[in-house]
Amino acid sequence: MHLPCPPRLGRARLVALLCALACAAPWSAAQPVAIPDPPRGDLRLVVFGDFNGPYGSLAYPAPVARVMAAVSDVWRPDLLLLPGDLVAGQSRSLPNERFAAMWAAFDVSVAAPLRAAGVPYAATMGNHDASNLRDPDGRFAFARERDAALAYWSHGEHWSGLTLVDAPAPPFRYAFVHGPVFVAAIDASGPVVDDEQRAWLEGVLASAPAREASVRLVMGHLPLVGIAVGRDRQGEVVWEAASLRDILLEHGVDGYVSGHQAAYYPGRWEGLELLFSGGIGGRALRDWDAPPRSAVTLVDVWLEPLVLRYTTYDPAGFQPFPATALPARIDGFGGVVECSERDGYCPAPGR
């Protein structure tokens, strides 16, 4: 259900309203669930995105609160990566004030609990957050969403614990280091990752902070290959993805983290590791009859020698993904992706 946004709602009243909404979550969402904690590496990341509600929603699905509780109380990651679709924009019918209200709701439900727990977080913008699609005249088709995202993420509290090394346009394009991890976030909120972005990405990946990092990741919302039913087509993946893949491989990137497909898959595409992060209310994988599942992924990293291990759970009950939920390979839109050995539940090749 969409809740109307009162006109000129002050910040204090808005926060109170959102807290009331959070307290009014279904009783079942607050019931204790055994949260597993797999063997921890030298450092731990959590990847969680695509959890927004319907257009204009100020409320989040119940699994979001469960994931935040797991992050804060059990998993305690060194860093949380949010690969987009964090709010429910990309609608011309929403009133102007709704966009700030949605980011305020995100703050109450996601960002504020992370700050309280001392967990640093970093996001890339999704198509529902701040789409970079343009009208024929060159203007951003969803400029209101982009303005609201910029206003929200301009507050320094969101970058606490991260060392920005090159940030020409946060939250759309920036790079940071956190301990031994280097992350570059690109604006893949639409299919076009233009020449300017690619040139910036090449430059920042060649920089000393990137070269000296033990782990190098790039995060963008749209994936490089389409693997999910309904998202396996032009416009749902990055255009000219092969050339972007080659840039990442040339600079020793350890993985491209994406959202948008709403289907979890730990993949490898012609040498490049791809983490399709899934989300809440998943989509089915191409040519695979297992039911779709929601997903949150732990990435445990051992540094010497470098090993990354994915452990993925369905937030409904924190059951791990079984091998039967994943095909050994997917003939995706734009390329063939093989299940990555980084996931302990990948089936044997040829299965």
Question: What portion of residues is helical?
Answer: 25-40%
- The CATH architecture would be 4-Layer Sandwich
Low-confidence sequence ranges: 1-30
- Cα-to-Cα separation, first versus last residue: 42 Å
Number of helices: 8
Which whole number gives the mean pLDDT? 91
Number-wise, the strands total: 15
Look at the structure and give the CATH class.
Answer: Alpha Beta
Q: Widest sheet: strand order?
A: 4-5-6-7-8-10-9-15-14
SS-based structural class? alpha/beta
Biggest sheet, open or closed, and with what strands and sense? 9 strands, mixed
String of helices and strands: HEHEHEHHEEEHHEHEEEEEEEE
Describe it.
Helix 8 (241-250) links the parallel strand 7 (215-219) and strand 8 (255-258). This protein has 351 residues and is of the alpha/beta class. It has a nine-stranded mixed β-sheet. The chain has a six-stranded mixed β-sheet with strand order 3-2-1-11-12-13, with helices on one face. Residues 1-30 have low confidence and may be disordered. It has one domain: Purple Acid Phosphatase, chain A, domain 2. The chain starts with 10 loop residues before the first helix and ends in a 12-residue tail after the last strand. It is built from eight helices and 15 strands.
Give the topology.
Blueprint: H1 11-23, E1 43-47, H2 62-75, E2 79-82, H3 97-117, E3 121-123, H4 127-130, H5 143-153, E4 163-169, E5 173-178, E6 181-185, H6 195-205, H7 208-212, E7 215-219, H8 241-250, E8 255-258, E9 264-269, E10 272-277, E11 296-302, E12 307-314, E13 319-320, E14 329-332, E15 335-339
Parallel strand pairs: 1-2, 2-3, 6-7, 7-8, 8-10
Antiparallel strand pairs: 1-11, 4-5, 5-6, 9-10, 9-15, 11-12, 12-13, 14-15
